[in-house]
Description:
Layout: H1 2-15, E1 27-30, E2 53-56, E3 62-69, E4 72-78, E5 81-88, E6 91-100, E7 104-106, H2 113-123, E8 136-149, E9 152-162, E10 165-178, E11 181-191, E12 201-202, E13 205-218
Antiparallel strand pairs: 1-10, 2-5, 3-4, 3-13, 4-7, 5-6, 6-8, 8-9, 9-10, 10-11, 11-13, 12-13
Amino acid sequence: xxxxxxxxxVGFSMGCKSELDGKTKAKVSEAKEIVKKVEKKVEEKGxxxxxxxxxxxxxxSYFGFVGAKAVGDHAxxxxxxxxxxxxxxxxxxxxxxQVKTSSLIVDKGDMTDEYHKKLGSHLKSPDxxxxxxFPKASFVxxxxxxxxxxxxxxxVTGNLNIRGVKKSxxxxxxxxxxxxxxxxxxxxxxxxxxxxxxxxxxxDNLIKEEVLLKVKFSSKG
Length: 221
């Protein structure tokens, strides 16, 4: 009987609408060596002698995630982060992002205060991010190249480090320039098990293995 209940819930989970549905899955492989210059120079006329410029990320930037269970999605983000983006003219050369995992917050939605607090604490526990043991997560690009497809403009590849597990991930992103400010956004799925997060959830509320990462940032003007 228990097995039948689990099978039914898995089917229910697959049938429920989720923000993860239809989103791009990142290509994940072993971590790559960091190289200083990652993109062939493609300069606009008159920018040949433009020097590389590294800019900090604005505090309005957003680094979030969406996880899905049998009964629905849960979204959250990290409020304490730092990072930089290096450009030469309108060529993106590199990107670095680091978040403090203890700054994780969960969107409350229609949760009770008690459940909201419980969920936030659970995500910080060893079942998930284990913030006491792994206080930081990071991303460092290894290649950023122009690759226009649909609404995206670039293909970004870099080393993503979560829970001390470092993997190379490659995903499409939209990067634009506006009066010296760089704006970028990306949404892509990863398998949390690749980064050591293997908690399955309760038998009556299973958790999907895929997690949607949502990134939106601007450089400081």
